[in-house]
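Per reviewer request, we include the raw input and output of the structure prediction for the construct analysed in the revised manuscript.
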Amino acid sequence: MAALKTQTNFEVQEDLLSMLDEAATRYNLPSRDKALRCVLDYVARDGDWDEVFGKTRCLRCGGRPGWTNGT
C-alpha cells in the first residue's frame, strides 16, 4: 500500500522537468511526480549517498545546456 503523499514545492531547472517528463513517458509512469518519487526512492534505498551528494556535478556551467534527451 502506498504511503500518504504530502504536496510540496521544489525549485528545479526546466531541463530537469523535461527529464522527469521523459522518464514518465519512457517507463509509462502516470506523471513527472511519480518519476521524481522513483528517483528519490532509489537514492534512499540503493544510492551511494557519498557518490550522489559528495560529488559536484554541473550540467549548466560553461554554457552547457543541462540535461538533454538521451544524455
